[in-house]
Structure formats: structure tokens, C-alpha cells
């Protein structure tokens, strides 16, 4: 089938107190589950390093040319699967796994202060919550000004908003890797449905002009 939709999902390597990063564990679980026959799913583990992210993201977009990229990260503060609506450009003071932080403390010089995903996370959240998965989903507008936020903004900038970021809690707090994998599967499937709608609307706009 030549018209498979390509989806790239990334998780992060361990850092700080997260000796096991639940984001990568959850993404590997999603890889096992898959996204159905019509979707070509690729996964990738992202280093917790600003400079590595800077070089990795453009090459991932170029290599896979995905319809959708979903980044997954862990948040020690999260108790739900949290859908991030936007990424922020400035305020990166925390040192990464290489004890580095950008001198400018921003992602893209001269870039907008924040970029929002073309996907409406409230809609995704509502649909997944209504499906009775047993995993709580919420929406946030602050991805935390560390590598999660940095990666999200960089990806939003590269893709003109055609990507998403999901924060997951640490394993067992309260969800298992299996539960997180099932939640990611449900969320990404809803995102793909929504993306179809966005695409149709964009085409309608183009024809209208």
C-alpha cells in the first residue's frame, strides 16, 4: 500500500533522577502495539542534549518526511498523560546531560515567542477521555522550558506546527508501561484523524483563494 501515513514518535533517554525514562519505555510499548495497517510508525530515542536535538530533528524530518511527528517526554510533576498545546522559544537555563545550555537561552534566534500545534489538543483530550481508556488525559500550555519544550518548539518551527508533544508521568506513578503505550496509541490515532480534518480545511482555503 503506497499511501501509508508516516508517523514518527520520539522518546527521551534517561536524565537526572529519571534513571529509566518512561517516555522512551512508553514509545517502545507503542511500537509493539502499532497504529494499524494504514500507518507506518517509526520511533526514535532522543538525547537529552540541546545541540543533539538541534542537529537530529531536521535530519529526522528529512529522512522520514512524516505526516506527523509526536514527541513524548517524562514529567516528574505529571500524574496524567498531558497533551502540550505549544512550545516556547525562550528561557532555557537548565543544563542538559552534557552540562550545556544555549548561550542565547532560546531555540531559534528571532523566532516567535511561542508556536502552537495545528492540532487542537482540547479536542484530542476530550475524544480520548470519552473513549473510556482508564488513563487520565489533560492539556497544558507550558511544556517546562527544558529539553521537552526545546524539542517541541524546534519541531513546531520546522514543521509549521504539524507536530505534537505528550508528557507522561514516571512509570508506576500511577500508570504501567502497558497503560502508557495504550494511551499513546489512542492519542496518536485521534491526532491523525484530526490532522485529516486540518488538511481538508487547508485545501479548502487554498481553493477558495
How would you describe what is shown here?
With 209 residues, the chain is α/β, with parallel strands linked by helices. The protein has a single domain, classed as Aminopeptidase, CATH 3.40.630. It has helices at 22-33, 50-64, 121-130, 147-159, 177-208, and strands spanning 5-12, 39-46, 68-74, 81-84, 86-88, 114-116, 137-140, 163-168. The strands form 2 sheets. Strands 2-1-3-8-4-7 form a 6-stranded mixed sheet, sandwiched between helices. Strands 5-6 form a two-stranded antiparallel ribbon. The longest helix is centred in the C-terminal third of the chain and has 32 residues, at 177-208. It is globular. The protein starts with a strand and ends with a helix. The mean pLDDT is 95.
Radius of gyration over all CA atoms, rounded: 16 Å
Number of strands: 8
Q: Quaternary arrangement of the chains shown?
A: single chain
Structural class designation: alpha/beta
In helices, the fraction of residues equals: 25-40%
Indicate the proportion of strand residues: 15-25%
Characterize the largest beta sheet: strand count, sense, and whether it forms a barrel. 6 strands, mixed
Could you say which overall geometry the principal axes of the C-alpha atoms support?
Answer: globular
CATH homologous superfamily identity: Peptidase C15, pyroglutamyl peptidase I-like
Integer average pLDDT = 95
The count of domains is: 1
Q: Quote the CATH topology.
A: Aminopeptidase
CATH architecture: 3-Layer(aba) Sandwich
CATH class: Alpha Beta
The N- to C-terminal Cα distance equals 33 Å
SS field, number of helical segments: 5
Give the neighbour order of strands across the main sheet.
2-1-3-8-4-7
Low-confidence spans: pLDDT under 50, at least 5 residues?
Answer: none
